[in-house]
User: Fold this.
Amino acid sequence: MKNFIDNIRSKPAGGIILLFVSIQIVAIIGGLMFADSFRYLNPANIAVLLKSMAPLGIMAIGVGILMITGEFDLSVGTLYTFCAIVTATMVKEYSLSPYLAMLVGIIVGILAGLVHGNIVNKFAIPSFIVTLGAMLLWKGSTLLYHGAKSLRYKYESESYEVLLKGDVGVIDASFFWFIAVGIIFYFLLHHHKIGNHFYAVGGNAEAATAIGINPKRVKLIAFAIAGGCAALSGVVAMSRVGSVQPGGGLGLELEAIAACVIGGCALMGGRGSIIGIMLGTALIYTIQDLLLLLRAPGFYFDMFVGSLIIIAAITNVALRKRL
Amino acid sequence: MKKLFSIILATLFISIGSAKAIDKDSNNDWSDIDILFLIWTAEDVEFFVPSINGAHDAAEDQGISMYMEFGDSDTAKTNDIIETAIANGVDGIAMTVWDDDAFDEIVCKAMDAGIPVVLHNIDDSQRAKGNCRMAYIGQFFIETGQTLAERMISEHGLKAGDHVFTPVEFPEAVYAVQRHEGVNNGITAMGGTTELLGTGTDHSEALNIMVQYLLGHPETDAVIGLGSTPTSVAVRAVEEAGMDIPVGGYDITPEILDNIANGSLTATVDQQPYHQGFMSVTMLAQYLKYGLLPADMNTGGSGLVDKSNVESAFKWAGITR
Assistant:
């Protein structure tokens, strides 16, 4: 058993896997023992827990890949809203199919990421500053494009209802999108040479250049992925609630960075994994869910969530360091 | 010829009548009066669209100049904007006191400099005693909270021991504290309990956290959203939690109106933001022009939007409602 645990801990996301599984075991035992008062295993609870992870999780995957290359994108929260509004208006005002409109929204997100990356590369300005400016730029662009009114997004189509709003048992369509994005980027990051380039550039850009990697090109790709994931995240969230608010999304960029750090991404780049990022996101929402099921006082709720996120991050680091 | 003459005469009478009704001093040019209309949040908050429309309409009606700034929910930034306005010699300020202490000095400084200040949307919790402002145009939060609670009790038979969930975007904000106080007064008076929970303004995030709360509190007997975000997603949250309990709330959004129309939401309190913008600018303009003193105004009164009157709200939502 000890060897098994040590083996897991030696993996890149070993700490977060152990932490997440431990919390799940405790919660499941609690749910079985106190089924009436602690409804963790209630199908409705499992459903909302899985639904809640998807938008932040998809965004965090893009943010995490960018962090592995040593860069940040603080504009993903406002870009999430801008791209969702572009998608909704494509359907409502230009009568595009929701899938084509979704593609347009994602392309806008990718282009935005490319613009951010180009500015960072060309002018050697820290991405923190460039994307801080971009955060305000996309926030203002949303108002310029649509105004401050919320936008309803309902599309009557059988395939759309299944692919973006349907469910299989307790698993919502949005969770399948999250898993699909996770699988795609898992193979890209861990089984494709571009993944090695991300780690190499984030770990030591000069050494990466010395072995023939073009750090600017690699970072540009990472920025584009972050922008595209932010856009998809916005569309998934909008489809879930059936509307989009121009003021929404702000603050999600920090939650996404938190999910990545909890999941083992290094702030300075060069370290991180897709499984870690996905479990980091899942852990944030599990903590929130457990606190609400345990009846933490609502007025001080953020204090409990914040404290437990810090404790989770410390535990993750401690588990890794025991190697 | 006779018919043409009649038409010209009628048009002339109507024109003269209208001009008299609209403006008794139309010969004066008041465009040199410059008013700052300050929104306390960022510019992307949907709630303020009717308020801004109202302020613009009032400035146009009064023939004055008005410019708009946004405080981004930041007390320091808001103070800086007002300080700059005072230095620039603005003639009047319409603003919001969303923090009981942060604006006390700056409002007094403006008033001392001879610049009238009228509040809109949120007042000091001590009202006129807590701040130097001349008047407040907005909702009286505690009273409306109590009205809504009483409506929910009478319509749904809430009784002693019942629990009411009261989610709100920012539990620490003055509007949240006072609305909760009003709702809580009504609910505790009949022996029930309430609990606040912060939802933020992102609808997707708000929906998740509200469903999770309801699953963790299956004894909940009603939901009263204290702001537009939780009220917009409350019906959906109740459905996703597999419950069948009544919902009420505050403000007007397309989702809220749809839910009132289909009977899944009992009633909402409309604080009439158009009036808040329109009347605050109008009162400032008329004070500066004629010395007419601004007075407090409870926009929306204690009226609720429910199934009986939802149609007119639908028609004008996002424009004047």
